[in-house]
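Running co-folding for zinc ion.
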Amino acid sequence: MARPRGKIDVVCQNPKCRYYLNENGKDIIKSGRYKSTGHQRYYCYHCRSYFMETKGTPFYRKRLSEREIRNICKHLVDKNGIRSIERITGHHRDTIGTLLEDMAEYADQMNEYLTRKLGLSTSECSDLWRFVQARKRKLSVAAQEGLMKNV
Ligand SMILES: [Zn+2]
């Protein structure tokens, strides 16, 4: 299916913004390209700042909506295994596994998200990362490095 013209996939990358990583209510436009790197530049009307397209964050071009990601994170914190989350949410375990991998790769950013947007405590975050870490053998190198920087 064709993506509607002009649909913006990115969310605000400014941690100080009220709409940081927020899909709902975001107000973002494309605003030229960075001369040095050629990356697409974006502008957020909420915090009035420019930022660069960041590929690969858990929220970038994912099949899961932010609400679904939030839901899965909650289940993880409640110590549900991947198979039981698959049963509860109806998402295939591979989809959940891929999400975990992306979360690990961007663990720094995710911590910010988990505490600020999901209201998790630091110890709940640690529980979640411990769970992800237990699956280490299944993680990509990038994901393992992301985890190491964070945990
Ligand atoms: Zn913003």
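Result summary
The first strand starts at residue 28 and ends at 33.
The chain has two domains: 8-54, 66-150.
Job closed.
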